Amino acid sequence: NAGVTQTPKFQVLKTGQSMTLQCAQDMNHEYMSWYRQDPGMGLRLIHYSVGAGITDQGEVPNGYNVSRSTTEDFPLRLLSAAPSQTSVYFCASSPRGQGGYTFGSGTRLTVV
Amino acid sequence: AQTVTQSQPEMSVQEAETVTLSCTYDTSESNYYLFWYKQPPSRQMILVIRQEAYKQQNATENRFSVNFQKAAKSFSLKISDSQLGDTAMYFCAYLYGGATNKLIFGTGTLLAVQP
Question: How many CB atoms lie within 10 A of CB B85?
């Protein structure tokens, strides 16, 4: 049972490049979320999903897209990377009704 | 909108002593969950303890316990017999028990346990 798997763990992008951060969970959780963590700001919600085919925006959605075609996968797409998107990104999942989220190990992204 | 405030950016405690981390939150909801997460230098987010708002009894997990004051919207974490491995960033988080299941975090408290 792998839990929540994020890839890659580290990435360096040039300004303007696009990329997809992958997230997969094998716990059959309905809820999935993407966060970014910046110093002094805690974790801020980017996008979230309450089930396959259903996504919505969080607190800081600009510059990011998501989709949820299956229960297991919830990729985060950066359309045109900017230095302001340099951050650590976490994916998390939760079952219905229990409230506790399980987190992936994070992706450290640097945009130069 | 729901908000979570952690007013102590950094704290320090001696090994084997007790420390309390503070957290307040703002909500108009009656049904919700509160959490404390630990993030050691490895970056992994680890769930420490969970409290359901409708339960008056304070949650306890080994050396970790909370003081949940619903009327005051306060949710502090007490760590007893502090250990070097407790050195980490600690995040307080609020989850609204509705359909969205959104988890909102405070800005964190960096705890250093000194030998």
Answer: 9
Question: A68, A54 in Cβ contact below 8 A?
Answer: yes
Contacts of B2 in chain A (CB under 8 A): none
Residue of A nearest to B8 (CA): A40
The 10s digit of each residue's pLDDT in B25-74 is 999 888 899 999 999 999 999 999 999 998 888 998 999 999 999 999 99
Cβ atoms A45, A93 nearer than 8 A: no
Residue A62 gets which letter from DSSP? Answer: T
Q: Give me the residue from A88, A96, A100 closest to B43, CB to CB.
A: A88
- Please give the Cα distance from A32 to A66 (Å, whole number): 11
Distances (CA, A) of A22 to A2, A72, B65: 14, 11, 35
